[in-house]
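Quiz preparation item.
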């Protein structure tokens, strides 16, 4: 579905991702794990078009997306969240999700919020899509609250709704459970499982092993920018190279 071949990016002398080849299979949850600085977020930045690789190729459903700008990658159906939550705290939860939907049509902030005529009709369509995204993450009753007034965990759900509102086929989640408590992590894990059960392909970067072991169908391990292992959670947790990467740093 989403395939990468010899993917690499260098920042000055730092080869952050190197020679990564593989693919994301549709309809399952894939987890990307690896020590801090392994290149996981950079890998997401490459897949989602935020960074352009210095080597290699990315295809989505057979189409070469290696050099496409981010909004075109989003329009094709690849959406992502960021490690640090990026939502508009002054806007309502619903307005945030509407903005997610409008990324697809590339209308700006003010068009999305204040537009008239055709914009207003499209705005209603955006609002319906945005409400549906909020429902999928369990935020429909908070739709009209300022996003910044929500708990940290709910704000993470807003950022997922923003991505969902773009209508993705693949959702890339960068450490969705970072900074939330164990109880909230259980709730968020359930939500992610429901999204996947609904047919969405999910790729998840996460450090919380409990979450990975309950969610991941497939795990890919990065270390020093390279893929050192992949397989089922059982296979990967028994892999000597993985144990070495975590213990040896
Ligand atoms: P992870 O998410 O696995 O913790 P990152 O992908 O954030 O790791 O970082 C991998 C490496 O790439 C690090 O050495 C980091 O400093 C470097 N890196 C990431 N983004 C940039 C950038 N925009 N400019 C320079 N170096 C970067
Ligand atoms: Mg990271």
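Solution:
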């Amino acid at each position: 579905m989403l395939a990468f071949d010899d993917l690499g990016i260098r920042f000055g002398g730092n080869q952050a991702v190197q020679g990564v080849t593989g693919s994301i299979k549709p309809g399952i949850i894939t987890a990307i794990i690896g020590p801090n600085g392994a290149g996981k977020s950079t890998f997401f930045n490459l897949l989602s078009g935020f960074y352009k690789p210095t080597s290699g190729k990315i295809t989505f459903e057979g189409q070469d997306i290696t050099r496409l700008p981010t909004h075109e990658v989003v329009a094709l159906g690849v959406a992502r969240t960021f490690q640090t939550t990026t939502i508009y705290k002054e806007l309502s939860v619903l307005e945030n999700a509407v903005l997610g939907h409008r990324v697809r049509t590339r209308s700006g902030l003010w068009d999305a919020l204040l537009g008239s005529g055709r914009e207003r009709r499209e705005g209603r369509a955006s609002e319906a899509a945005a409400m549906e995204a909020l429902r999928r993450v369990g935020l429909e009753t908070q739709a009209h609250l300022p996003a910044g007034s929500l708990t940290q965990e709910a704000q993470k759900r807003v950022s997922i709704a923003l991505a969902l509102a773009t209508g993705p086929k693949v959702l890339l989640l960068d450490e969705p459970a970072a900074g939330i408590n164990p109880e909230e992590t259980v709730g968020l894990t359930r939500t992610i499982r429901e999204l996947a059960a609904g047919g969405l392909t999910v790729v998840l970067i996460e450090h919380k092993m409990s979450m990975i072991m309950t969610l991941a169908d497939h795990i890919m391990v990065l270390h020093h920018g390279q893929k050192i292992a992949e397989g089922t959670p059982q296979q990967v947790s028994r892999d000597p190279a993985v144990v070495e990467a975590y213990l040896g740093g």
